[in-house]
Design goal:
With 343 residues, this protein is mainly α. The chain has one domain. A two-stranded antiparallel sheet has the order 1-2. A hairpin with a 2-residue loop joins strand 1 and strand 2. Helix 4 packs parallel to helix 7 and helix 10 runs antiparallel to helix 12. The protein is globular, with a radius of gyration of 21 Å.
């Protein structure tokens, strides 16, 4: 068995184990999960991802055709991709929290929606990654389009005023489904479909799933150019296509593992991440600019030989955004979300 196949098997096994544990802990709780417990589980899952990335440094064999050591490069790109996608996933969770609040989703039903939403996200990201990497492999100029997309996304994210403009009822899937099927008046029903007087009704939970699924698509579209920009360095083929696909998929999926635990922590410490959106927008701008400037041979050569710089910028930006969120008090903070979640 070659090392790539072995790593794929290990990656799949870890995902199944982490996902199962995360579901069990949240679904079999006897009381509300505390912030301390949620952060503890989150720290464990991040540590698992870091150990997986570090193992690439020690165990991944050197590619004889590559002038740069394969193991260290694989580790740096995995960790860079992981933190980039993790920050985007956290932003995605913020949207989930707002959707649950605005649609009055009962706290007991939230883990079920999170489970479905995360699985939809995983499937979409894998499909989009495979298509995106294949396109760049055959048409390298597409990477510059991705660069423009990232810069535009960074601008929109930085210019937005948070998630106040989220309106589930304006969602096209929401409106379409509610027109085709009658809606169960019980907003706290734990089912997706119910029967009333022999007629099938959709529930508030199902409508919330449609809204979450549509946001998953939007976030997947944003995340794919980002991960491609991290994994690929211009037109230089240091890693093989199979290695690049492995890094893109594994770092992306690792980033959504353990999000169920993190969700319960975020509801109580959203203030700690007030500047995360600004930090993520800067990271996307940096990656997009790097992709565009890769057309200049000198710049491309620099980042190829100094891939650790991208990792330093990503981690440094995330840490700075959290530190500023803690140090700078938010005088406008209100407990509205927590109040709505108590329905």
């Amino acid at each position: 068995m070659d090392i790539m196949t072995l790593y794929w098997l290990v990656f799949i096994a870890i995902f199944c184990i982490v996902y199962s544990i995360d579901l069990y802990v949240t679904e079999h709780r006897k009381e509300t999960i505390s912030i301390k417990s949620s952060l503890g589980w989150t720290a464990i899952w991040i540590s698992v991802a870091m150990l997986f990335g570090i193992s690439l440094y020690f165990f991944f064999p050197q590619n004889p055709d590559s002038p740069i050591k394969t193991g260290p490069l694989m580790m740096v790109k995995f960790i860079s991709g992981y933190f980039t996608e993790y920050s985007l996933s956290v932003d995605n969770l913020f949207v989930f929290i707002m959707i649950f609040s605005m649609m009055g989703i009962n706290e007991k039903n939230q883990p079920k929606l999170l489970k479905m939403g995360i699985m939809i996200s995983v499937v979409l990201r894998i499909l989009f990654i495979l298509v995106g990497m294949e396109l760049v492999q055959h048409f390298h100029w597409i990477i510059y389009i991705f660069g423009f997309i990232l810069i535009w996304t960074a601008y929109k994210m930085a210019a937005s005023k948070g998630n106040d403009n989220i309106d589930p009822q304006s969602n096209i899937l929401y409106k379409g489904a509610s027109k085709i099927f009658p809606v169960d008046p019980d907003v706290h029903s734990p089912y997706f479909f119910t029967k009333i007087d022999g007629k099938t009704h959709i529930t508030n939970l199902f409508l919330a799933l449609l809204v979450i699924g549509s946001t998953d698509i939007l976030f997947a579209v944003d995340s794919i150019p980002a991960i491609i920009g991290v994994i690929k360095e211009g037109s230089t083929n240091i890693l093989t296509p199979s290695e690049e696909n492995f890094l893109a998929i594994s770092s992306n999926v690792f980033a959504v593992m353990g999000l169920i635990s993190l969700f319960f922590a975020l509801k109580g410490i959203m203030g700690m991440f007030r500047f995360l959106k600004t930090g993520v927008s800067f990271i996307l701008f940096f990656i997009g600019a790097k992709m565009l400037l890769g057309a200049i041979p000198t710049v491309e050569h620099f980042f190829v030989n100094h891939s650790w710089i991208s990792l330093a910028v990503i981690i440094g930006t995330l840490l700075l955004s959290i530190v500023l969120s803690v140090l700078i008090k938010n005088e406008k903070a209100t407990p509205e979300i927590e109040q709505k979640d108590s329905h």
